[in-house]
Amino acid sequence: MKKFSEIEYVRPDMEVEKEKIGAYTEALKNVKSYEELRGLFMEEKEREDVWATMAEVAQVRYTVDTRDSFYEGEVQFWNETVPAIRLLMQKAEKVILESPFIKEFAGEFGDFFVKNMEVGQKLADDCIVEDLIEEANLTQQYSKITANASTKFRGETCNFYGLLKAMQSTDREMRKEAMTAWGDLYEEISGELDALYDKMVPLRDKIAKKLGFSSYIEFIYLSYGRYDYTAEDVAKFRAQVKEKIVPLCLKLRKEQEKRLGVDKLHYYDEELIFPEGNAVPEGTTAEMVAKAQKMYHELSKETGEFFDFMVEHELFDLETKPGKQTGGYCTFLNTFKAPFIFSNFNGTSADVDVLTHEAGHAFEAYTAAKQIPFMDMVFPTSEVAEIHSMSMEHFTYPWMEAFFGKKADDYRYAHLMNAMEVIPYMVCVDEFQHKVFENIGMTAKERREVWHQLEQNYMPWRNYDGHKFLEEGGFWMQKQHIFVNPFYYIDYALAQICAFQFFERSKKEPEQAWADYYRLCQAGGSKGYFELLEMAGLKNPFADGTVENVVEELRPYLKRKIKYTIRPVREEDLKKVAEVEAVCFPAAEAAWYEDFIERYQTCQNSFFVAETEEGEIAGFCNGCCADTDYLADALYHDASLHNPDGDYQMIFGLDVNPKFQKQGIGEALMRHMVKSAGERGKKAVVLTCKDHMIPFYKRIGYEYIELSDSTHGGAAWHKMMYRLKK
Length: 726
Hints:
The structure is a single chain. By secondary structure, this protein is of the alpha+beta class. Helices cover 57% and strands 10% of the residues. The longest helix is centred in the first third of the chain and has 39 residues, at 172-210. It is globular, with a radius of gyration of 29 Å.
């Protein structure tokens, strides 16, 4: 494959393509065997890939610069051409569905794919071709209006993204000024956006009713492949969010208000998580891509291969520039089996999110395309597709030091907090759209009133500090999905509930969690939503108790990371150390104060504590050195067996006070011990642990050796080892 910039754009002769599809349809009617039908079908899919790839190249190049008149014209051409082509393809699919070989077809390609073909028969007709062209043109207008909107802010020309960055400033006046400019800019173009939406809503309703649907809601649910649940189920999910997540978010916002030291949290304060400033990535765009490449190599063999492919073929356009469409996305170039990532870097942590979120989409497509014979089945339904992207954000947490340095913990906390707090906004967007399409004649003023009321229900902390346009409900129009991908946004909320499950599992069973995630990516869109959830070992977000359970599992991680220092133990620490040990271990396994005195006297260089800023001992790890890698029970109690010059660093215990658990302290202590052992020239670090701790130690680099013969405390212990490089 060439680099993306070197791909030659050639518009196919679509009249010829139409003739080929017609000939294909006629040939399908006369097949004598399943093998013949399959051969025709696969040949047609290859032809579709060629023109679909050219259409996508034109779309990408237009979004990179909406001022490019050539690609604007090409996008217009595809907007006007694709609906008619889709209609011809639908007629061919009808022949397949009526074929005597449909059972063999379903047996190879799956019932879900056949179901999509059946539903497709209900979603297109000659009578809506002109309407679909008009809809595509309206969404193109939206992209152009928002891409070219700009204003002067403190002497610089800024678009929406530039203003959002200023809203993370530690200077509150600057944040307020940026929000005011941001709101004013939306108000400035609100007339155009209202006029567009006034056309979009009745047009979409007309499309649905021409096809015989009772409403656009019914039509769009089928369009998204939502066969497993209904609008009523989504309404119940929104109710769970309001009951279980909104109160937690309100609590988090109150904590943020206190942390920032402001009298009242305003909208322009929401993006600033820490008074000293949010974590921002270090390095240029090229440097961050290089860091991401290293990260993906360390995450897995498969992700390393994928990201090398992306870099080699320059399948990114990441930096903000004049005329570039807002937002970010991942798309796919069928002919090349290549993803493409588009974004607008703005110097905030969102830039790193692109390299994880959009890369999650890209990894799934790259992976599924290797397993699945044609592109129609590569992408799943959107509520599954967003699991791929959001889960990748969490799987990459351990590598955030590469991007944020010492502020990596701040990033992880802020990211997790924001991932939770955005769910009420997502369901707010969803309910807003339901209300709009339940009342087609709603005016612009009425839409604002509806949004304002929903904001109070789902985001009771939201305060615009007197900005009239935003206070009256103008905020809704900043969500491009409402214009471009109606009713899509709820999929992010459903997916986040599943991504949180992968996050929690990655802490307890990292290998199994990743294996299930990878299996989900390989499956692509070959199965339906509920079936894919089951395959990945994920609980259904609609099931009673799922939202509540996920929230409860996540609460400990939503505590602000404490500040602590890891240092060598001191004699005056030993009584506190013994107290922590007594809390963490049963009496049969716990060491006593006298044991710690002996260990302090004989192996100080193997004894470290994590001390908080308030002087509390949050945790500690301790051990000794020995001549062999055999961790004998006698070592725990006979200090004469310790050899400070021995080749092996033994670990007696890792303790974290329950008050400070799930803060990453245990991992930090173990990594500190490994670093210290390496500096002292040891060959390996050796420990024994119980069953439930094996995944934790594996995640930080220890390999499983064997079941130990230790009888310490009457429990079963497993030997693990971290080998140090010489």
